[in-house]
Write a structure and sequence with these properties.
With about 210 residues, this protein is mainly α. The chain is built from seven helices and no strands. The longest helix has about 40 residues. Bound molecules: 2-acetamido-2-deoxy-beta-D-glucopyranose.
């Protein structure tokens, strides 16, 4: 190999304009979204404020779903727009990188959309915090190929876009998405498990 790993990383990092305000905004949105929905969901669980405000658990959950969905669209638009003004790097441009980018993006979208299809709106958007629980664990594709198809698919889509455009700045955002989802899962999984454990306990006492 001509270049060492360190040189490759240096070259990639040099291609990133960290000073760009759009890039910084993309970073902020990426961090904000999972923090936002986790905090709102926890508040809902403890106070039922969205349920009260919207006149029902299902309505509250739809309201939150629409908000999270819109925030996601805004974040994706800012990400794309931020990448447009970043430089490409010859290390990740060229036909094969473009193809890999498209493939990862498509796989990511398939994971996201198929898990949404399987879970439904309330299953996808934190319905359990509203007391809307799934009757049983969803199995089958995409849950037989991925532990968290929503998060893993989203991360792959970010990465795919970065490679498709050949922009190292996209790799930085993708890494951050990966990291944020990892933290979010560490926070969400035990809480969701607790909600379902309580339901099962309540069922036994009936
Ligand atoms: C996952 O499930 C689908 C059907 O829902 C099946 O076609 C596919 O082969 C399964 N994949 C794995 C890796 O088990």
């Amino acid at each position: 190999m001509k270049e060492s790993v360190q040189e490759i990383i240096q070259q990639l990092v040099h291609s990133v304009d960290f000073q760009s305000s759009k890039f910084q905004l993309a970073i902020i949105c990426t961090m904000f979204n999972p923090i936002f929905w986790n905090i709102v969901a926890r508040i809902e669980y403890h106070t039922h404020s969205l349920t009260k405000m919207c006149g029902g658990a299902k309505k509250g959950c739809y309201m939150l779903a629409a908000t999270i969905f819109s925030l996601g669209i805004i974040r994706d638009m800012i990400y794309e727009s931020a990448l447009r003004e970043q430089s490409t790097c010859s290390l990740i441009t060229g036909g094969n990188w473009t193809k890999l980018g498209v493939a990862l993006f498509v796989v990511g979208q398939v994971l996201v959309l198929s898990s949404m299809y399987k879970l439904g709106i309330t299953g996808t958007y934190l319905g359990d915090y509203f007391g809307i629980l799934m009757d049983e664990r969803v199995t089958g594709f995409p849950f037989n190929v991925s532990d968290n198809p929503m998060y893993q698919g989203s991360t792959l889509s970010f990465l795919g876009m970065a490679l498709y455009k050949g922009k190292p700045a996209g790799l930085v955002v993708s890494a951050l998405v990966y990291f944020m989802y990892k933290i979010a899962l560490r926070w969400e999984e035990p809480f969701t498990a607790m909600i379902y454990a309580n339901r099962d306990k309540a069922k036994k006492n009936v």
